[in-house]
Amino acid sequence: MYQALYRKWRPQTFADVIGQQHITDTLRAQLQSGRLSHAYLFTGTRGTGKTTCAKILARAVNCENPVNGDPCNECAACRGILDGSVLDVTEIDAASNNGVDNIRDLRDETRYTPAQVKKRVFIIDEVHMLSIGAFNALLKTLEEPPEHVLFILATTELHKVPATILSRCQRFDFRRIGAEDIARRLLDVAGGEGIGLTEGAARLIARLADGAMRDALSMLDRAAAAGAVDEQTVTAALGVMGQDDSLRLAGSLKAGDLAAAVGLLDEYYNAGRDLASVYDQMLGLIRDALLVKTSKTDVSALISPAYSVQTLQKLCDGLAASTLIAWSRVIGDALDRMRSAANRRVEAELCAVRLCSLDADSYDTLGGRVEALEEKLKNGVPVQAAQPMPASGTAAGIGDEPPPPDDSDAPDWAGGQEDTRAPEKNEAAAPAAADWPHWPALLEALTGKINTGAHTNLKLSARGIEEDGALVILCEDGITAMLAKAEPTMKVIRAQAAALAGAPVKVKVQEAGDEPVHKKNTAVDELIGRAKAFDIQVKEL
After folding, report:
1. Which residue ranges are recorded for the region named Disordered (predicted)?
2. Which of 3, 24, 338, 455 has the highest Cβ tally under 10 A?
3. Tens digit of pLDDT for each residue in 394-446?
4. By C-alpha distance, which of 328, 335, 361, 198 is closest to 276?
5. Which residues span the domain enclosing 144?
6. Phi-psi region of 138 (alpha: psi -120 to 50; beta: other; left: phi over 0)
């Protein structure tokens, strides 16, 4: 009968346990010196070796021929415990035996001496699931058990264990197993099983296991069903993104290419991948990219083994740290919404829209947005310039182009003919806003004379137009307008504008959308015209 890899390759001695040397060395030293505690508490995340070490300890205390603190696994006691025939070693699942009566039965069993081995060992797994009454029933026995009894408690949620229990046990904290250690172990297991596992696939599984050796072996078991295991096999079997997939999606978001990003999400969705997991992996990539972007020291040991430092540096070119942080916030919010969304795919695509079009509110601070703009400017990322307003002569709905100037039969398109159309009431005039001729020179002159953030925003998000002889700085957003209106900045802008124009220039700052609407009132214009014909002085307000 086939046995799962995580059961078949469960460590049989302390020397076989990986990633927990601080615990195994201590336990072996206690066994060799005979200074064993009466109760142990093993705590840590899933798959880190808590139950495995508990079973090894149970054999080691009863072994007839221990080897440097490890059980020999050859004597009658070791073999009996391994095959479950020794009833003096009992493993209890507290999740399903969590009542007071269960603990009372266990307490009654402690009175009897072991029949086959030296000590009776009670392994209580997931001990945090016991009820308050069950914990209270265990207290006295746990504090002063008979000499022939050893308690080993295991839990993944230490905060749920009462302090009265903690104080009666010798506690050992199991760490997450390092990705490099998991990858090496996977390659060893694959070699013993005759599985063709590539190093890249082992690293990918190790990253996905998140420090749990049991999870890693279970993933290898799934991926090995098709034979040889490489990165493509792992991503197909587990329904996750590979290294290149994550980088492709990040590259599309970096370029602001929404069509490519949504296309990739569609590809992952059709391949059966959970889009929430896709974004969860993106958070891991963003975390590694932030380490590479912001750290001034070598972080190769801290990043995921799935990516190289050079790959992450290439991704970070043109991306500010504040942009990466903004991405993580947008993705985090999307993941929260996806948990309760009726259509997770739509929510995932909306997240891509937000990532490709970050606005000012997406950044933590104004400094973060300025940093992002400066990074774009430094790396030559093209910025969409504001489009000039259409001239009044090209009104919507008139598709005819003027004929060539040498066509003598053509009507006078230059405005010589009077427009006989009756003007509509309160018709809004849309005169073309002429660019201020010295605007590029002004931006150049302001270099180093005003705040760097204000200067960057003016370059990327503002336009200088001329209106009634005044310079109007038309800003695309409120932040740029606020920076431009600051009195020290305005003072320098007025001085430089006057120097370029050769005369004092009135300077105004407007945010896009706040421009005054000039409405044409033909009745008033006609009245003013007649008054002027009779030399009547009219004061216009």
Report:
1. 381-434
2. 24
3. 444 444 444 444 444 444 444 444 444 444 444 444 445 678 888 888 888 88
4. 335
5. 5-173
6. alpha
